[in-house]
Specification:
571 residues, mainly alpha, 25 helices, 70% helix, globular, disordered N terminus
């Protein structure tokens, strides 16, 4: 069965919804906006259509195995999870990793592990939406929310994508700067990212599996680069293991809590949920067959677990290297340690001679490794950063494409989409690179992590809502009561942690009265919009009292008839 065949669901719905879904099935020209069904896949969805832009329009045809588990089938499903995992390895995450090691040594590795497991739980819900319904998260939002909230949600997702793009731009520019021995200025490196992104567009002419192998090669490059440094550093393995599984340590220092919060904010990317729900649609699945859908969900979960395990190990490499080499050192200590190395002049110009904790970013990290272990380590580090920037480039490109097509049913040519997002991302980075110091360029990563943390509810809440909806997921795949409680608790925990991170950073800024007014105004809007999403989520969870309220029907629900006959007690 091809992906553009509509699914058949047994969820409770009234006769009107069934008739409208049947009408959609019989029409080959129905668009997402012209259909009132929240459930049936759009006939012209870019991922359901062989002419779509996703991976050149190619889908992997799966062969049915008789066994419950087959490595051959697992290999057929392998690809989307590793592309998703690239977002856990972008330059922003790498910088967060090294700062974690500097501030808290190995003692925050358990936070990194917990954040990765939390991300896996959220990715699993996003995968279920794409596999079961045949619609990705953005397409589902297009059908579920009213026009104005849907556009606001799309803008928030775009902000997260552009913020991620900027981190990739910064990381790539710094990597090129290091690899060229500072011969290529940062602003030229920023411009180069436009060209290398456009060059990726030509990869769509290759087969899907070859393209996925390219992403695997880039992940392998990161593993080898950062793993090399981990090996030559000769890190005590017992300290690494203790840091992963013992959530207490004598190494905690002022700033550790804020760094722990920053790790969670950097690891869990909001747009990654939209991306993963779309990527899983690249495999043909017979959604009328419950066993086949369950099998697909199982294999995707296994693949995502392996992919995130690999990304976790790579992140551990980075944390451990800087925990071993730089923890407890001040800026002056670093300058003194490198005074006789060939990097002495670079170190002196990069570090301020004082007794504060060493202030290191991905650029200074390369210099420090070059000073401690020789020039080869600096170049190997830069290659790893370059691979991180290049691989996450495609992650942002695909996420932006799926968001625009899903929310707006607007299918731009790929080059137009890339040119738009890259131009918006490059303008501020180019300005800082041309007119400011390198330090200002790297400090943008902290700001961007805070911006993306703000966007997390706009991905987490819809993901939990739709995967918990009996009307959308049908009885075989809807989240159970325990699963609902866990997913809601985890979502709000992450949201609360990220908001704390943002407030803590605001406290360090001297706000003018006008800035305070702007923060209050935005905060009011932010809270109000989250309340809207929460009310909509309560309806999806099966709360009949909320669903039957006239104000909710009028202002919140775009398709209230779908929830009028829900079976079950909900939450």
């Amino acid at each position: 069965m091809s992906l553009n065949e509509p699914s058949s669901f047994e969820s409770a719905r009234n006769a009107e919804a069934v008739n409208k879904s049947a009408s959609q099935t019989s029409s080959a020209t129905t668009t997402p906006n012209s259909s009132n069904s929240l459930i049936e896949p759009s006939e012209d969805s870019s991922l359901n259509n062989a002419s779509g832009l996703f991976y050149g329009g190619e889908c992997v045809t799966l062969t049915t195995e008789t066994t419950n588990f087959s490595f051959r089938e697992l290999w057929a499903f392998t690809g989307p999870g590793f592309l998703m995992s690239i977002a856990y390895l972008d330059p922003g995450n790498i910088e967060s990793d090294l700062q974690s090691g500097i501030v808290a040594k190995f003692s925050l590795l358990w936070v990194l592990l917990g954040a990765t497991l939390l991300g896996l739980a959220m990715q699993r819900l996003a995968v279920k939406i794409g596999v079961v319904t045949g619609l990705d998260l953005a397409e589902m939002c297009c059908k579920q929310y009213k026009t104005v909230p849907r556009l606001i949600l799309w803008l928030m997702v775009e902000v997260a994508i552009i913020g991620s793009d900027m981190q990739e731009v910064i990381g790539t520019a710094i990597a090129i700067y290091l690899l060229s021995s500072k011969r290529i200025p940062l602003y030229i490196g920023v411009l180069i990212t436009v060209l290398d992104t456009l060059s990726f567009l030509f990869l769509d002419k290759y087969k899907l599996r070859r393209l996925e192998l390219l992403f695997g090669f880039l992940i392998t490059t990161m593993a080898v680069s950062f793993g090399y440094q981990y090996i030559v550093t000769d890190i005590p393995q017992i300290n690494v293991i203790e840091g992963m599984f013992l959530p207490w340590s004598s190494d905690y220092r002022p700033g550790t809590l804020l760094q722990a919060v920053g790790i969670i904010g950097a690891v869990i990317m909001p747009h990654n949920l939209y991306l993963h729900s779309a990527l899983v649609k690249s495999r043909t699945i017979n959604r009328n067959n419950v066993k086949e859908v369950k099998k697909a969900n199982r294999y995707y979960f296994i693949e995502a677990s392996i992919a995130l395990a690999v990304s976790f190990v790579i992140n551990v490499f980075v944390v451990s290297v800087f925990a071993h080499d730089v923890y407890g050192k001040t800026n002056q200590d670093v300058i003194d340690a490198c005074s006789n190395s060939s990097f002495a002049d670079d170190i002196i110009s990069a570090f301020i001679a004082n007794n504060y904790t060493a202030d290191i970013n991905i650029y200074k990290g390369g210099l420090v490794l070059g000073c401690f272990y020789g020039g080869l380590s600096m170049y190997v580090w830069a290659i790893g950063i370059l691979a991180a920037g290049q691989s996450s480039t495609m992650t942002g490109t695909y996420a932006g494409q799926f968001a625009m097509e899903g929310f707006l049913n607007l299918q731009w040519a790929r080059w137009k989409r890339v040119l738009f997002t890259r131009t918006v991302a490059i303008m501020p980075a180019f300005y800082v690179a041309f007119f400011s110091r390198l330090e200002d360029l790297t400090k943008m990563n902290d700001i961007l992590n805070a911006v993306m943390a703000l966007q997390l509810p706009f991905a987490a809440i819809p993901t939990v809502a739709f995967s918990s909806s009996l009307a959308l997921m049908k009885a075989d795949f809807v989240n159970g009561r325990l699963e609902k409680i866990i997913s809601i608790t985890l979502s709000f925990t992450v949201i609360g942690i990220n908001l704390y991170f943002i407030v803590a950073n605001l406290e360090q800024v001297n706000l003018t009265p006008l800035m305070i007014f702007g923060v209050v105004l935005f905060g009011t809007f932010y809270i109000a919009f989250n309340l809207y999403l929460l009310l909509h989520m309560m309806v999806n969870l099966g709360n009949k009292a909320v669903a039957s309220n006239w104000a909710i029907k009028r202002f919140v629900l775009d398709n209230s008839h779908l929830f009028s006959n829900l079976n079950g007690n909900g939450m």
